[in-house]
Design a protein that fits this description.
366 residues, alpha/beta, TIM Barrel, eight-stranded mixed β-sheet, three-stranded antiparallel β-sheet, 13 strands
């Protein structure tokens, strides 16, 4: 824990001058909501799981229809669906939401004591299953691509006890099977948390050791893809306005849940971390995460508290002068990162599909 505090302090000092300079330009805020979307959470019955899916099918469009970003887009929700929970009736409603332009579906996976070959088979099988619903994007060569979140945060066998993964060369396997980026982090206070924080970077796998993504090379304007996998982190900080026992600051890890609602002080803290591509200080990527299929989270994600968050974003962070708000999916985050790296300066709306095309189910939206 003490080691992480030192890391966070060093990272804050390193970024402080960049933060001050960034506000000389309008800041483009890319707001990305990623969901560890698990209908069968806690071994639910199929009936209960279907009810959870219905909650999103019926209520999310109602919420999203009330808001628009600077490009005229409604809020976007990226559903990272667990491969081990696949059932067609769970995916069809998500494909419909995707076709309506309200989000996209990517890959989530819980596994334990696995092997590289076993992981590869699981990913390839699930890619085919998702594609049968018109989901997952393709690159310019027609290769199927996907974003990834690791179950239990244990990317690249990063748990100290070696559980919930087992594959030391997981980054390589993800790369080989078409993963465009990982969106697992932050994971603090878990021991799976990396030393590198508040960053978008490329990690190189060491197949002989776990947690190869602990450090990496920052994505930057003019820089190339290096290593095995792009790591897109959400904001991580110490919240001094929310203290345990009135003394110790709480860890802010950008989770939205029933016990962690999206209050203004948290949104401002997310923005202050300025996660982005080096050389584009006016682009601020804010990735927050949730577990949308837990009943205890329905109100904060689909009800009044989420509505208030979007109202605040529209009112205070989309004035076109200091801030410009863009709701984005995980795939669009990747495209914008790659566009920034190549020095693109065009309108954001034209860069959302820069390298990776929309899923086939979205053809009617083109």
């Amino acid at each position: 824990m003490l080691r992480n505090v030192h890391i966070w302090l060093a990272d804050y000092l390193r970024q402080s001058s960049r933060r001050r300079k960034a506000f000389a330009l309008p800041t483009h805020i890319f707001f990305c909501f990623v969901d560890h979307y698990e209908p069968l959470w806690r071994d639910a019955s199929v009936e209960q799981a279907n009810q959870r899916v219905r909650q999103w099918s019926e209520n999310y469009p109602k919420l999203a229809s009330q808001f628009r970003d600077a490009d005229g887009r409604p809020p976007q929700h990226t559903f990272f669906f667990p491969a081990e929970q696949y059932r067609p009736e769970f995916l069809d409603p998500l494909a419909k939401l995707t076709a309506q332009g309200l989000g996209e579906v990517e890959i989530h996976l819980h596994h334990d004591n696995d092997t590289a070959d076993g992981l590869r088979r699981s990913l390839e099988k699930f890619k085919t299953q998702l594609h049968s619903h018109g989901l997952l994007c393709s690159d310019r060569n027609g290769r199927m691509r996907y974003g990834f979140i690791h179950g239990n945060w244990a990317l690249d066998n990063s748990r100290g006890d070696g559980r919930r993964c087992g594959v030391n060369n997981e980054l390589q396997v993800l790369n080989e099977t078409g993963c465009y980026a990982d969106f697992t982090l932050p994971s603090a206070p878990s021991d799976t948390q990396t030393g590198k924080i508040n960053s978008i970077y490329y990690a190189k796998d060491d197949p002989r050791a776990p947690k190869s993504h602990d450090w990496g090379v920052d994505a930057r304007v003019g820089g190339n893809s290096v290593g095995d996998l792009l790591i897109v982190q959400g904001p991580l900080a110490l919240n001094w306005r929310s203290r345990k026992w009135g003394l110790l600051p709480r860890i802010e890890n950008a989770e939205v849940a029933h016990n962690a609602p999206p209050k203004r002080e948290r949104v401002e803290l997310w923005l202050r971390q300025r996660v982005g591509v080096a050389g584009r200080p006016d682009w601020n990527f804010v990735k927050v995460h949730t577990h949308g299929c837990q009943e205890q989270n329905f109100e904060v994600l689909l009800g009044e508290r989420c509505r208030r968050m979007h109202e605040m974003l529209a009112r205070d962070f989309n004035d076109g002068q200091r801030f410009v708000l863009h709701y984005v999916t995980a795939r669009e985050v990747y495209n914008l990162i790659r566009a920034a790296q190549s020095g693109q300066r065009g309108a954001v709306a034209a860069l959302r599909d820069y390298e990776l095309a929309r899923p086939p189910v979205c053809k009617s939206l083109r």
